[in-house]
Write a structure and sequence with these properties.
This protein is of the alpha/beta class. It has a single domain, classed as Rossmann fold, CATH 3.40.50.300. About 35% of the residues lie in helices and about 25% in strands. The chain is built from nine helices and ten strands. Strands 6-7-8-3-9-10 form a six-stranded mixed β-sheet, with helices on both faces. Helix 3 runs parallel beside helix 5, helix 4 crosses helix 5 and helix 5 packs parallel to helix 6. The longest helix has 18 residues. The two termini are about 30 Å apart.
Length: about 240
Amino acid sequence: MILSADGVGFGYRRGAPILTDISLDIQAGRNLALVGESGAGKSTLLRLLLGLARPTTGVIRFDGAPLTVGRPFRRAVQAVFQDPYSSLDPRHRIGRIVAEPLRGLGLGADPAKVTAALDAVGLPADTAGRYPHEFSGGQRQRIAIARAIVGNPRLLLADEPVSALDLTTRVRIVDLLASLCSSHGLTIMLVSHDLGVVAELCAWTAVLESGRLVEQGETAAVLGRPSHPYTQRLLASVPRLPLS
């Protein structure tokens, strides 16, 4: 088990709970999708799993122990976010941006590792000397993924990583993520409302409604034979991305 949530709840003082009694496990080698409508609490749960906020109740565990955000965690767990245009600092060259996690981990900005990460996402070595504004949205998301994998993490937490991209670029990024799982031994937790992407990438799916997990299980079963009425409504209402 890389990361797990055990009875996790979250809310602000004097406000209604955002998350209630969330329990789920992220196992090495088993990609997990978290799906639900906007406002269901998906991004809040992701923040808790990243250690950016603390649960009000329950506990987040990393490798079986209560989560402490130190170098072992930051080396093992990285994130990719939705908007490839705002996630890259426009003032810095791509090489510096991709090397950022290496510096944060005290590993040094090794140009060879930066080149290897760019190559892994299908970008040439000379990308390192250029600036974010010189690239398309899909290329910027590849750069963001290169930054996330440069330190060889075990887990990638991806928050709607293709929703801001056009259809053709979405398919390419999904194919890239699937390839990285095979080539780099990467496990992905995917936050998404796109059930086509979920079916392509994730073996396990958890469904979040109004801050509560209402259903989870193998993706084929959850999407093919949903047992909860909310999941049934979600499947009926959310358009799917044709990936084949």
